User: Fold these one by one.
Assistant:
Number 1:
Amino acid sequence: MGRPPQSYKDAGVDIDRGNALVKRIKPLAQGTVRAGVMGGVGGFGALFRLAGLGYRDPLLVSSTDGVGTKQKLTVALDGHDTIGIDLVAMCVNDVVVQGAEPLFFLDYFATGRLDVEVATRVIAGIAAGCKQAGAALVGGETAEMPDLYAAGDYDLAGFCVGVVEAGALIDGRGVRAGDALIGIAASGPHANGYSLIRRLIEHRQADLAQPLDGRTLAEALLLPTRIYVRPILDLIGQIPVRALAHITGGGLYENLPRVMPPDTRAVIDASAWPRPPVFDWIQAQGAIAWREMHRTFNCGIGMVAVVAEPDAPRAIQSLSRSGETAWRIGTVVPFAQGHGERVVIEGLPGPCGPRDTEESYPVRSS
């Protein structure tokens, strides 16, 4: 007897499922089209025309990122509708901090066995994020790779390109002592620190249905990353912004020095903004030291703008008009290398804050 004929589908890759997904997502991508887009989803490469956008000396700014292990929690909690927003946010927020307008976005979706329904929900979230950012979803890649991913699991990556006039590039070189630090509210942990969060959930056998600040703990942990593009572009159009920092992994300690001259230090007052209760819950479950909290999480500040002291009130007003909540959280001061840290956070309580007791929020006993 001869061997039975084999096919790609027998090996676990179903081309028909992939084609069905492309058919579903084409209208989603079409809904994000903006000036400059040429063609549509389905070609070998996406085309974008810069001419006609009004830039005299354009610089392209690019960023690529993923969503980390928040995606694992998304799968466990069936939160596929918003993880795509996280993906877009992690890229476009990194582009806008240089003063750039996001132009287009591409995604990469990889899985062991393609579930067309789940993939459509994820990519619908990506399209929604692109709309928030004003970027076009011009293409992407869907990869079905049996045995590489566990059943039901998938991985995400994104890539964004933006543009800024060369003379309007924000690179932090204008930051000086005396400048004001304006913190913009985060929606929650965004897409950072979820390896620790998932570890705490598992070890404490946390009840994800427990109430927390008007929603469940699960909902608080799945809130998508805020997309700051339009409020920041509005702010830049009204006042000179000297630097912008997207507060991701590493928190304020690691991200602010990336946009500040080496002879400056950021002094921050932690009592200047209310910390979202989800961070109280996280800190309580792991008895996490304050420094570790601020090096792992944004702790309620998703973006920081550095402006001249006299412009601070107008900056906060502009952000408020754009729907953001912002506070004056600190000041830039002189710094001599070798004399302490580049970021100092003052006003922190003891090792765990006064609200950080295990009784604050109910958990199942381990």
Note: The longest helix spans residues 116-133.
Number 2:
Amino acid sequence: MGLGVNSHFIYDRGAMSEQPVPPPPSKIVAVHSSYRSRARERGTFPAWPSYFLKPPSTLAADGDPVLRPPGCELLAFEGEVALIIGTRATRVTPATAWDHVGWVTAANDFGVHDLRYADKGSNLRSKGVDGFTPLGPSLLDARTVDPATVTIRTWLNGRLVQDSGADDLLFGLADIVADITRLTTLEPGDVILTGTPAGSTVVEPGDLVEVEVRAGRQVTGPLRSPVGEATYRLAEPGAMPRVDEAQRAAAYGTRTRAGVRGGDGPAGEADPTWAEILAAVGAVSTATLASQLRKRGYDGLTLDRLHSTRPSATMAGLARTVRYVPVREDLVRQAPGNAQKQVIEQVRPGEVLVIEARGELAAGTIGDILGLRAQVRGAVGIITDGAIRDSGALGQRLDIPVYYRAVHPAVLGRRHLPWEANVTVACAGVTIQPGDILAGDGDGVVVVPRDIAWDVALDAREQERQEEFIAAMVASGESISGLYPLGPRWRPAYDAWVRQREDGST
């Protein structure tokens, strides 16, 4: 298959679709950042998607070589889910946006970071190079695809380096389509590159990158992109490749992988997924998590003096933040929109809405209707260090826990002005950043730093298992001496008890 914009040469429909092959796209719209894991690498969590355009001349097919331009060293891949528009879409809603998607396929959004400086934001020189947008090889009929099941996997020379699903997305796939069409009409054949998760890094000539998209049991098959070296000359005048530490860190994904001074970023492709981390954190109590955090030197991550509408419920999710400031009548008209309602409409499944209310207890911060809307959007919990109103309805209508300091009948406008969302906040005595991991139960709420969350959760699970054994021994009449905490004398008995449980014995 050769390069070109004729879709008949780019896509192999496979056996999954009876629809016609898409027409050539009038445009390729790419999202800058849409995955939590990638946003954490970049150190910023956007409140809404931002975009750049790639020329249709960048399209390439399965097996076509991707050629690194002369003088460049930082060619990076980005495995992505591509949406191909089936019917014209103008100002569609998130509820109807998916009806306008015709196909789903795999994409690789290649770019050379050596030239990002020349067109920062637009990425024309860095990502507009001919052949820098491989698509395919097969198309999945969007009518048969549940967006919530779509996953992206990328291999570099046979090693899995990206593996993410909808739980990692900051913005839903349908939400992205709807957002673009607020101002820009999408035509049949247009391609949307929906962003890349963590794990993107630099490749060299001779490398092979493979990207695959799955949706339930459907799969696109691997999109193969061998990397080569271009033989043409990059003539002056014009911007020429150049590299600095910032570009090197961006290309490799983290400062650590780039070998840049001060690097201590995420471990990258070996990390467990968000879903695995949240499941592990949610499986243990906040008391045990707090104990494990204290052993690691973290004493300031438990939120203080909070009550719960559902003390028996547990919660584990990622923070979505909003900051309230003291009401000032002359600024009400200048406020940048209603940040409270905006942030609730941005909530994604698996998130916790966190409200900084400065500990002000003389007005409510959220009531039952907006709380219910957050739950419908997928929130797993709500936290405010102020007061709630409609407390009875919040406790009865919501299945998710709401953590709060007090109850008050007044609306928030009596004391609060919702000012900005998706920023670092101070809530109940703890600094919380967008994307932080929050765990809650009847004892309260604790923040678990992402970079240590997996280890903390595993150690907490082991601690709780030991305590279960210790409790059983104490209940049978044993002294706590040498038993609590578990000492060498009791270790053989504990190990035997663990093996017995794992074997399913009684």
Note: The CA atoms of residues 151 and 201 lie 19 Å apart.
Number 3:
Amino acid sequence: MRIKLSYTVEDEQVLKEAANLIGLTGEHLQKALTLFSSTQSALKGEEGGDDPPNIEKIRDLIEEFRQALLVVDTRLAEVVDIIEGYEMYRISQRTGEGAPDSFAPETLPSTELSEG
């Protein structure tokens, strides 16, 4: 089950925090690259000598590869949401319209758990 977390940081820390969140995907990205190479090798029959490729193993490699990419893609989508929201906040500050309600400090919980 996926759990959505929410927390607050100072406005000048938003982009640095977004960078930190992207950094959390490094292990999954490395795993995806390894699986990319392994899948290609398995499909080319480079791992089994003269034996035919193991189709079940190849399916498992591809599924594992897809899951690793999904983790990276999900995190990147979350970071895009964060930086787009931050840009809206910055624009509202420049135009003097005030922050949207979702950015008003008194309305942000320090943590929030929900299924997502």
Note: The longest strand covers residues 3-6.
